[in-house]
Write a structure and sequence with these properties.
Helix content: 40-55%
Distance between the termini: 66 Å
Structural class: alpha/beta
Number of domains: 3
Number of strands: 14
Order of helices and strands: HEHEHEHHEHEHHEEEEEHEEHHHEEHH
Length: 417
Amino acid sequence: MSVKFGDESVENSMKKINKVVLAFSGGLDTSVILKWLQDTYQCEVVTFTADVGQGEEVEPARAKAQQLGVKEIYIEDLREEFVRDYVFPMFRANAIYEGEYLLGTSIARPLIAKRQVEIARETNADAVSHGATGKGNDQVRFELGYYALQPDIHVIAPWREWDLSSREKLLNYAEKNGIPVEMKKKTGSPYSMDANLLHISYEGRSLENPAVEPEESMWRWSVSPENAPDEAEYLDVEFRRGDVVALNGDAMTPAQVLTQLNQLGGKHGIGRLDLVENRYVGMKSRGCYETPGGTILLRAHRAIESITLDREVAHLKDEMMPRYAALIYNGYWWSPERSAMQTMIDATQDNVNGWVRLKLYKGNVIVVGRDSETNSLFDEAIATFEDDAGAYNQADAAGFIRLNALRLRMAAGMKKE
């Protein structure tokens, strides 16, 4: 297959667009983008609204799209696919970006990009479009996904083309063009937020000063640890091949698992994060995140791996993890290197079976027990501090230590000379 590449701005100005698939939330930004695409490109717009567990009703997006003259409207429940095929594989790797961020926004983008490209094929659309700004990571994540899945796709990124550079200009454009955003004007959040089943994020306004503490009223999914219940709650988490399959003995689907963990974590003030991160586009950005279910899931997964993974396999995974996490953060989910790493990671999970018991208390996830009937590598007869009946010869340690100390002794001897 031959793929032609060229100057995007020249290509955009020359190519006639007949139909474009827009990632559409129904909010201010994407509503303005819908109308702007219609006016600027004189094209038909197909809207795609994905339910990835953002916790808000997605059907109003249909009425908004219809009001703006859209004939082909896609609204799809992707919650199970999102957790099963994206969140769970990522947690098999114990992925954390820059030591803290659980990648809640990052991991939803490849799924949305994939479905957009599929809809473009189904509807014979010429292009796809998104509402990500030219300053953020999401533009990269969406577009790397588009190009990886359809190399010759035409991408329209309005924030890199138009002059509507502020919320005030967007509101004026909406009012001038009869776009209904009255409720947004009156009750719109002061923060830029993104939510799905894994997390909710907050950016902008007072958070742009990293020295200012977030106001308590900002948080939506969790109580503060100070106001969490005074009594701890125990939770049993069952794993099969590295994925959670049951909570407290009740079998659940992936989306049901994460929904339940979010409720439990939020109840106990778990999963809040205030972070200054390094964006892929080069700037530092301060954001706040609530990831209650993901915080519990990560702690539980590492606990079950602690008794089922070989030492060197576990350490190899930990060495790979920062690279894997950076690939997801930067938008390379569909890259060959992420796929190769995933194959290795998934192979390590064959024996990650068993259960973990957790205690949830005032913002803390405390591991209090773990076991695997079939795959545990923990041998009490060897590990015990009591009489091991000859299972381990402690005298063997002397030679082991002397061999490992050989290079240290030689170096010390050279320094002495």
